[in-house]
Amino acid sequence: MKTTRNPWKWIPTLYFAEGLPYVAVMVVSVVMYKRFGLSNTEVALYTSWLYLPWVIKPFWSPFVDILKTKRWWIISMQLLIGAGFAGIAFTLPTPFFLQASLAFFWLMAFSSATHDIAADGFYMLALDDSQQSFFVGIRSTFYRLASITGQGFLIILAGFLEKSSGNIPLAWSITFFILAGMFIAFFAWHRFALPRPDSDTGKAAHTPKEVMNEFVNTFKTFFTKKGIGVAIAFMLLYRLAEAMLVKMTYPFLLDGRELGGLGLSTQNAGIAYGTVGVIALTLGGIVGGIVASRKGLKYWIWPMAMAITLPNIAYLLLAIYQPENFLWVNVAVATEQFGYGFGFTAYMLFLIYFSQGEHKTAHYSICTGFMALGMMLPGMVAGWIQEQLGYLNFFIFIIIAIIPTLLLIPFIKIDKEFGKAKK
After folding, report:
1. Domain range for 303
2. Contact assessment for residue 338 and residue 280, using Cβ atoms and an 8 Å cutoff
3. 227: which of 51, 84, 266, 267 lies 20 to 30 Å off by Cα?
4. Residue 129 has pLDDT above 70, yes or no
5. Residue 280 falls inside a structural domain
């Protein structure tokens, strides 16, 4: 049996499969529930709870290392994700669609978070250092393609089916059946294509007691780091505005003009935010990475903190003028998403910086848990706030939400050389 395979055979499909369920849980669910008639308060609250598996992911990641192989976890989770998509598809036409579909979304969220742990670990086991460096851009590209597919093409497809069939539950049911079929295909392909590296043993190198001691020590050393209070506050607040905005973007695009929205069709909303927006987000991240590598995180943290929120003025302008021209909608969405991608670079670099030292991999995982919590909590109340304020005042509130982050930045200590490319 071959223990190695050409990485081109499995890395693109593996990271496409990693990105798709996350987008489905975080974004596609928002559009679907909005089209089913739920209020903005309900949409934001229910879908924000789905962040929880990524918040608590660090607590069970050690057990993915201990139990079974990472290859086994990847294949098993893809099958579960496929079953979750099928469960949603079957239950959407029923009277109890909300409770049932949320239950299946929860199954998918936990399966997807577990798949993330296993896939990232497997990547390091199956490739040598040079291959890891070479394919890091490839994996990011296919993760982004999954994002475009999920919140772009699939939402456009659902909109087309809504229009052609006149039946919203049927349209979304077909869309999720397609997703289920894709994951059955991923499951079948990866059973064949994934290599079997010798180091992927699925057995702890130490006794269970030693593993538990190491687990406790990992958290102890993290929470005793110098500046931990300011760092956690920064992790939770840096994306405060974006965490609320992302839950209300699609509702704003879809709601009628009499409600303060733009009244777009599902298809056009998918084009603007799910396609044009994701491309702009990707370009912003690329530019952010390039400039940060030249002068480092300390130099760029202020401009990037401003970039992640000030472009939200584009949504304020959309709410004021409610343009009929679809081009202006795309320009506004692209502007905000480019700024978000550019500004998010500083956030990711800070997580890497704060994770340095012993247990850096585990500490980075804990940081990503706080990152997810920083998206979950504001997102839960975003719908209620919007319904109390209306879209126009909500976007003003979003812009003001940058203030806590700006107040924190002067207290963050960052090495001047961190983030710069080595010469």
Report:
1. 219-413
2. yes
3. 51
4. no
5. yes
